[in-house]
From TrEMBL:
<feature type="repeat" description="ANK">
    <location>
        <begin position="48"/>
        <end position="81"/>
    </location>
</feature>
<feature type="repeat" description="ANK">
    <location>
        <begin position="118"/>
        <end position="150"/>
    </location>
</feature>
<dbReference type="InterPro" id="IPR002110">
    <property type="entry name" value="Ankyrin_rpt"/>
</dbReference>
<keyword id="KW-0677">Repeat</keyword>
<protein>
    <submittedName>
        <fullName>Uncharacterized protein</fullName>
    </submittedName>
</protein>
<keyword id="KW-0040">ANK repeat</keyword>
<feature type="repeat" description="ANK">
    <location>
        <begin position="151"/>
        <end position="184"/>
    </location>
</feature>
<feature type="region of interest" description="Disordered">
    <location>
        <begin position="1"/>
        <end position="22"/>
    </location>
</feature>
<dbReference type="Pfam" id="PF12796">
    <property type="entry name" value="Ank_2"/>
</dbReference>
<feature type="repeat" description="ANK">
    <location>
        <begin position="15"/>
        <end position="47"/>
    </location>
</feature>
<dbReference type="Pfam" id="PF13637">
    <property type="entry name" value="Ank_4"/>
</dbReference>
<dbReference type="InterPro" id="IPR036770">
    <property type="entry name" value="Ankyrin_rpt-contain_sf"/>
</dbReference>
Protein backbone atom coordinates (compact mmCIF):
# COMPACT_ATOMS: atom_id res chain seq x y z
CA UNK A 1 0.00 0.00 0.00
CA UNK A 2 1.19 3.54 -0.67
CA UNK A 3 1.10 4.31 3.03
CA UNK A 4 4.15 2.07 3.42
CA UNK A 5 6.23 4.41 1.25
CA UNK A 6 6.05 7.64 3.19
CA UNK A 7 2.81 8.92 1.70
CA UNK A 8 0.86 11.52 3.66
CA UNK A 9 -1.92 9.54 5.33
CA UNK A 10 -3.89 12.75 5.82
CA UNK A 11 -3.79 13.91 2.19
CA UNK A 12 -7.22 14.81 0.84
CA UNK A 13 -8.69 14.56 -2.64
CA UNK A 14 -10.51 17.40 -4.37
CA UNK A 15 -13.74 16.44 -2.60
CA UNK A 16 -11.86 16.43 0.74
CA UNK A 17 -11.97 12.65 0.97
CA UNK A 18 -9.05 11.24 2.93
CA UNK A 19 -7.58 7.74 2.78
CA UNK A 20 -9.32 7.06 6.07
CA UNK A 21 -12.68 8.08 4.64
CA UNK A 22 -12.16 5.77 1.65
CA UNK A 23 -11.08 2.82 3.76
CA UNK A 24 -14.05 3.25 6.09
CA UNK A 25 -16.54 3.58 3.24
CA UNK A 26 -15.23 0.36 1.70
CA UNK A 27 -15.38 -1.48 5.03
CA UNK A 28 -11.66 -2.26 5.02
CA UNK A 29 -11.05 -2.88 8.72
CA UNK A 30 -7.34 -3.74 8.41
CA UNK A 31 -6.64 -0.69 6.27
CA UNK A 32 -8.52 1.55 8.69
CA UNK A 33 -6.56 0.14 11.62
CA UNK A 34 -3.25 0.61 9.82
CA UNK A 35 -4.10 4.20 8.93
CA UNK A 36 -5.03 4.94 12.53
CA UNK A 37 -1.81 3.34 13.75
CA UNK A 38 0.03 5.70 11.40
CA UNK A 39 -1.77 8.63 13.04
CA UNK A 40 -4.31 9.39 10.37
CA UNK A 41 -6.56 12.25 11.51
CA UNK A 42 -9.57 10.47 12.94
CA UNK A 43 -11.83 13.54 12.92
CA UNK A 44 -11.05 14.77 9.42
CA UNK A 45 -14.10 16.04 7.54
CA UNK A 46 -15.13 15.71 3.92
CA UNK A 47 -17.98 17.35 2.02
CA UNK A 48 -21.01 18.14 4.22
CA UNK A 49 -18.88 17.90 7.35
CA UNK A 50 -18.88 14.10 7.34
CA UNK A 51 -16.18 12.43 9.42
CA UNK A 52 -14.99 8.81 9.19
CA UNK A 53 -17.21 8.06 12.20
CA UNK A 54 -20.34 9.20 10.37
CA UNK A 55 -19.28 7.23 7.29
CA UNK A 56 -18.69 4.13 9.42
CA UNK A 57 -22.19 4.35 10.88
CA UNK A 58 -23.65 3.84 7.41
CA UNK A 59 -21.62 0.77 6.40
CA UNK A 60 -22.25 -2.97 6.67
CA UNK A 61 -19.09 -3.20 8.80
CA UNK A 62 -20.19 -0.67 11.40
CA UNK A 63 -20.06 -3.26 14.22
CA UNK A 64 -16.29 -3.46 13.80
CA UNK A 65 -15.48 0.02 12.55
CA UNK A 66 -17.30 2.17 15.11
CA UNK A 67 -15.61 0.61 18.18
CA UNK A 68 -12.25 0.81 16.40
CA UNK A 69 -12.62 4.51 15.65
CA UNK A 70 -13.87 5.16 19.18
CA UNK A 71 -10.76 3.49 20.59
CA UNK A 72 -8.65 6.08 18.76
CA UNK A 73 -10.31 9.08 20.35
CA UNK A 74 -12.85 9.97 17.69
CA UNK A 75 -15.26 12.79 18.51
CA UNK A 76 -18.53 10.92 18.92
CA UNK A 77 -20.50 14.16 19.34
CA UNK A 78 -19.76 15.40 15.84
CA UNK A 79 -22.63 16.25 13.48
CA UNK A 80 -22.62 16.86 9.75
CA UNK A 81 -23.95 20.01 8.11
CA UNK A 82 -27.47 18.55 8.24
CA UNK A 83 -27.19 18.20 12.01
CA UNK A 84 -27.10 14.39 11.87
CA UNK A 85 -25.11 12.70 14.63
CA UNK A 86 -23.68 9.19 14.63
CA UNK A 87 -26.87 7.68 16.05
CA UNK A 88 -29.00 9.26 13.33
CA UNK A 89 -26.61 7.87 10.71
CA UNK A 90 -26.65 4.44 12.34
CA UNK A 91 -30.40 4.15 11.82
CA UNK A 92 -29.69 4.28 8.08
CA UNK A 93 -27.22 1.40 8.21
CA UNK A 94 -28.40 -1.16 5.64
CA UNK A 95 -27.83 -4.51 7.29
CA UNK A 96 -29.47 -4.74 10.74
CA UNK A 97 -30.88 -2.94 13.77
CA UNK A 98 -27.69 -2.42 15.82
CA UNK A 99 -29.41 -2.17 19.18
CA UNK A 100 -26.16 -2.97 21.02
CA UNK A 101 -24.24 -0.23 19.23
CA UNK A 102 -27.10 2.17 19.86
CA UNK A 103 -26.94 1.29 23.55
CA UNK A 104 -23.18 1.95 23.59
CA UNK A 105 -23.59 5.33 21.93
CA UNK A 106 -26.37 6.42 24.28
CA UNK A 107 -24.26 5.32 27.25
CA UNK A 108 -21.52 7.58 25.88
CA UNK A 109 -23.94 10.50 25.94
CA UNK A 110 -25.34 10.57 22.40
CA UNK A 111 -28.93 11.77 22.30
CA UNK A 112 -31.51 10.04 20.10
CA UNK A 113 -33.14 13.45 19.67
CA UNK A 114 -30.13 15.45 18.52
CA UNK A 115 -31.03 16.77 15.08
CA UNK A 116 -31.72 20.10 13.42
CA UNK A 117 -35.21 21.48 13.97
CA UNK A 118 -37.50 20.29 11.19
CA UNK A 119 -35.41 17.24 10.27
CA UNK A 120 -36.24 13.58 10.75
CA UNK A 121 -34.99 12.13 14.03
CA UNK A 122 -33.52 8.69 14.63
CA UNK A 123 -36.96 7.40 15.60
CA UNK A 124 -38.36 8.36 12.18
CA UNK A 125 -35.66 6.49 10.30
CA UNK A 126 -35.75 3.39 12.50
CA UNK A 127 -39.53 3.22 12.16
CA UNK A 128 -39.44 3.73 8.38
CA UNK A 129 -37.02 0.80 8.10
CA UNK A 130 -39.38 -1.32 10.22
CA UNK A 131 -36.83 -1.93 12.98
CA UNK A 132 -39.17 -2.68 15.82
CA UNK A 133 -36.57 -3.61 18.44
CA UNK A 134 -34.58 -0.47 17.72
CA UNK A 135 -37.70 1.71 17.83
CA UNK A 136 -38.65 0.29 21.22
CA UNK A 137 -35.11 0.79 22.51
CA UNK A 138 -34.98 4.40 21.31
CA UNK A 139 -38.34 5.14 22.93
CA UNK A 140 -37.09 3.66 26.20
CA UNK A 141 -34.08 6.00 26.07
CA UNK A 142 -35.54 9.40 25.39
CA UNK A 143 -36.87 9.35 21.85
CA UNK A 144 -40.27 10.97 21.32
CA UNK A 145 -42.88 8.82 19.59
CA UNK A 146 -44.55 12.02 18.37
CA UNK A 147 -41.38 13.80 17.24
CA UNK A 148 -42.01 16.14 14.33
CA UNK A 149 -39.70 15.98 11.33
CA UNK A 150 -39.80 17.51 7.87
CA UNK A 151 -43.12 19.25 7.23
CA UNK A 152 -44.19 18.26 10.76
CA UNK A 153 -44.35 14.57 9.88
CA UNK A 154 -44.56 12.28 12.90
CA UNK A 155 -43.00 8.79 12.90
CA UNK A 156 -46.52 7.35 12.51
CA UNK A 157 -47.18 9.45 9.43
CA UNK A 158 -43.71 8.73 8.07
CA UNK A 159 -44.32 4.98 8.38
CA UNK A 160 -47.85 5.12 7.00
CA UNK A 161 -46.69 6.65 3.71
CA UNK A 162 -44.90 3.53 2.52
CA UNK A 163 -44.44 0.99 5.31
CA UNK A 164 -46.14 -2.30 4.55
CA UNK A 165 -45.69 -3.85 7.98
CA UNK A 166 -48.73 -3.43 10.26
CA UNK A 167 -46.57 -4.55 13.20
CA UNK A 168 -44.51 -1.35 12.97
CA UNK A 169 -47.64 0.76 12.90
CA UNK A 170 -49.03 -1.18 15.85
CA UNK A 171 -45.81 -0.69 17.82
CA UNK A 172 -45.94 3.08 17.43
CA UNK A 173 -49.60 3.22 18.40
CA UNK A 174 -49.04 1.07 21.48
CA UNK A 175 -46.21 3.40 22.50
CA UNK A 176 -48.49 6.42 22.39
CA UNK A 177 -48.33 7.74 18.83
CA UNK A 178 -50.93 10.46 18.29
CA UNK A 179 -53.07 9.55 15.29
CA UNK A 180 -54.51 13.06 15.08
CA UNK A 181 -51.22 14.89 14.49
CA UNK A 182 -51.27 16.81 11.22
CA UNK A 183 -48.49 17.69 8.84
CA UNK A 184 -47.96 21.15 7.42
CA UNK A 185 -50.33 20.05 4.66
CA UNK A 186 -53.12 19.17 7.08
CA UNK A 187 -52.76 15.41 6.65
CA UNK A 188 -52.87 12.71 9.34
CA UNK A 189 -51.52 9.16 9.27
CA UNK A 190 -54.90 7.98 7.97
CA UNK A 191 -54.54 10.27 4.97
CA UNK A 192 -51.08 8.83 4.35
CA UNK A 193 -52.39 5.26 4.38
CA UNK A 194 -55.19 6.06 1.96
CA UNK A 195 -52.85 7.97 -0.36
CA UNK A 196 -50.40 5.07 -0.33
CA UNK A 197 -53.10 2.74 -1.58
CA UNK A 198 -53.75 5.04 -4.51
CA UNK A 199 -50.17 5.52 -5.58
CA UNK A 200 -48.51 2.10 -5.27
CA UNK A 201 -48.83 0.08 -8.45
CA UNK A 202 -50.01 -3.23 -7.00
CA UNK A 203 -53.41 -2.01 -5.85
CA UNK A 204 -54.85 -5.37 -4.87
CA UNK A 205 -51.99 -6.41 -2.57
CA UNK A 206 -51.54 -2.91 -1.19
CA UNK A 207 -55.25 -2.69 -0.48
CA UNK A 208 -55.11 -5.73 1.76
CA UNK A 209 -52.09 -4.30 3.57
CA UNK A 210 -53.72 -0.91 4.00
CA UNK A 211 -56.89 -2.53 5.31
CA UNK A 212 -54.87 -4.34 7.97
CA UNK A 213 -53.22 -1.07 8.92
CA UNK A 214 -56.53 0.74 9.13
CA UNK A 215 -57.91 -2.06 11.28
CA UNK A 216 -54.87 -1.74 13.53
CA UNK A 217 -55.42 1.99 13.92
CA UNK A 218 -59.10 1.70 14.77
CA UNK A 219 -58.49 -1.17 17.18
CA UNK A 220 -55.77 0.65 19.10
CA UNK A 221 -57.33 4.11 19.23
Amino acid sequence: MVMNHGADVNAQESDRQSSLHRAVQNGRFKAVKKLLEREAEVNTTRTAGITPLLDAARTNETDELLPLLMSYGVDINVTDTNGFNVLRCLTLCPDKEHVDLTRLLIEKGISPREVLVGAYESIHCAAKRERIDLVNFLLEHGANVNALGLNNQSPLYFVAQECENPAMLSTLLKRGANIDLKTNFGETALHALINAQRTIANQRWTGRTTSRMLSTIFFLT
